[in-house]
Specification:
The chain is an alpha/beta fold. It contains seven helices and eleven strands. The strands form three sheets. A seven-stranded mixed beta sheet has the order 5-4-1-6-10-7-11.
Length: about 220
Amino acid sequence: MDKYAVIVAGGNGLRMESDIPKQFLLLRGKPVLMHTLQKFSNCKQLILVLPDKQISYWGELCKQYNFLLPHTVVKGGRERFFSVLNGLRALPDDGLVAIHDGVRPCLSEQIITNSFDAAEKYGNAVVAVPSKDSIRMVDEEKSIAVDRSKYYLIQTPQTFNLALLKKVYGQTVYQDKFTDDASVFESAGNIIHLVKGEYTNIKITTPEDLPLAELFL
C-alpha cells in the first residue's frame, strides 16, 4: 500500500521558555522540524500542518537552509484534531498514513517501518513504551499507587489505514479527550494495536529536551 505522512507542528514555545516556536529551534545546525520531515522522506507524499501565521516563516527557513525535500504545507486548526483533519483532506482515500509530532525528530527508521507494517496488517499501529517509573493516580486530595506494568507511554507515529482514518475523522465530533489520533480512532469502536517504541523517541517540549535530542541524534 502507498505510504503517506502527516507531520503536525503547532507549538508556540511557551514551555520551552523561548520566543521561537519549538519546531523551529536549531538542532545540530538546522530547525528541529527539518530533521523530523527528513525521517519520512521515503513516503509517497509528505504533508506538513502548520499554524497559518507560521507558514511564511517556514518558507523563509526552507530557503535559508536550502531544505529541498518535497512536501505540502497545510494550514492547521484550533486543536490538533482539526489540524490532522486538514492534513488528511490533502491526501487520497487509499493507502497508509503515519501521523507524527513535528517535534519528535529522534525516531528511528525501524519504528517507521514497523508502524507501517503493523498498520497494513491490523488497520492501525500506535507506538508506545512501557513506563519506567512508578505511577500514582491522583484522586481529589489523595494519591493511589497503580500497577505500572499495565500502563504504556504513547508516542508517535500513529499509523492507520488511510480510508478508515478518514472515515472516522469525517464522522466524529471533536471532544476535549482527543489528545491524539488513537483516542479519536478508538472512539469509533476500533481496537488500538500497540507497537514497540523507543525511549529515545522523545518529544521536545521543555528546555532540557533539546540537549537530549542532540545526544540521541
